[in-house]
Design a protein that fits this description.
The chain has about 450 residues and is an alpha/beta fold. About 45% of the residues lie in helices and about 10% in strands. It folds into two domains: about 300 residues, no CATH class; about 35 residues, no CATH class. It contains 20 helices and eight strands.
Length: about 450
Amino acid sequence: MFETAFALGLTQFARSLSLPERVRHRTVRNAALEPWRLRNTGVDALYYDVKALTADETFYISDSLASEGLIMIVPPSGGPMLTLCDSVEEYRLRGGRDVHALTVAGMGGSAIGAAAFARNVADSIGEPVAAVVSGYGLGDIVNEAIGGAFLFGWLGHVRSNLEAIDDMVGRPKLGDYGKRDGDADGKTSRGLDADTVASLLADPSLSFTLIAGHSRGNRVIADALHSLKATDPTRLEDLSTTARIVTFGGRIRMPDAFADITDVVGELDWFGELNSRPKIATDIRVPFCGHSTNTDLPGAINVTKILTDILAGHSVQAAERPALKLVPTELAETVQPAMTKPVKQLDTATEEVVSALAPSDVEATPAPAPAEPSVIKAAAEPAPEPELQAQPDPVAMATAEPEPAAAQPLAVKPDQPAPSASKKTAAKPDAKKTRARR
């Protein structure tokens, strides 16, 4: 916030130094408008990112704060100082043919607000930007008195008609003022700022790929495009195929030839909603943001970041969800039979000795190492039959049965009794028989 206050204070101080010179030429007009212009400069300091301007730039434009129709070439941050152009011809001579973006700011209409908004756009595209100053004159005072400042979307035509007051008292002839002098009846339904924008867009030697506006500047752009539609529809069609429009803080109806239009409005921007057409849908609604673009203040729209995302094709409101990773078809065909194959049914007597294993687990288990030949022979040799047979043991019967799989080497089961144990079991009935005989 300190940088904003510093830029505003320096601008007001520099303007006070040039006040005697300005009052000497147009005493009544400048004396009446100076308090309102200072007020509008303070308003623009709250609604635009004026800290993006250098001290030299704020001092340089302080004498032309309210010059309607003034054209500026604003480079990105860290580049050379901005350039002021009094007319369209001077704009071409000072390098306007290499500029491909055009911006118009609104709110107070001061040059410091227009330059700050253009600097944000220039930082997003990395190229110089042309900015047209909306200005503030006697017609704006009358328009503000009847509510046009709060209803610029609905009463914008009233402001254009009231600019005849400034023409009568003799305001500076900036921008495309010569076009107004060339009218046969001396009347026009557009403002000097809209005429200047229309002349820049209609010039075949200039090419614009981006047109951005904020607040009342959106109305100026719309008026200029509708004027171009009436005077040169072929040029309008060519421009609609190469340029895209991005509006901040208000939705205004543009000519139907333009299909690539992005309207950005803050979620808390009541002023922008009041001046927007309700039938036009908002393309991007920025959460927890209002009408201001000064990033020093909470709830401000970050023009540089949002415009960078728009030009890159990213969504500002929500990120795309990652796509689900599907199982490959080959893996699914391999796993499905193993999961649906029934578990091997074991005999009741065998379940007490060995545990039931699924076929998939058996296949995954490494084959046991082959046993010694002597051990295999002892396991396959049946136990000698005793003289007095005891009750048959189901475990012994199960273990004595030969294995069905002959291809794999046999292994000794952990619970199978050794041959010596069978002989001891068979010897016990002989001892009982001997005692009985005695």
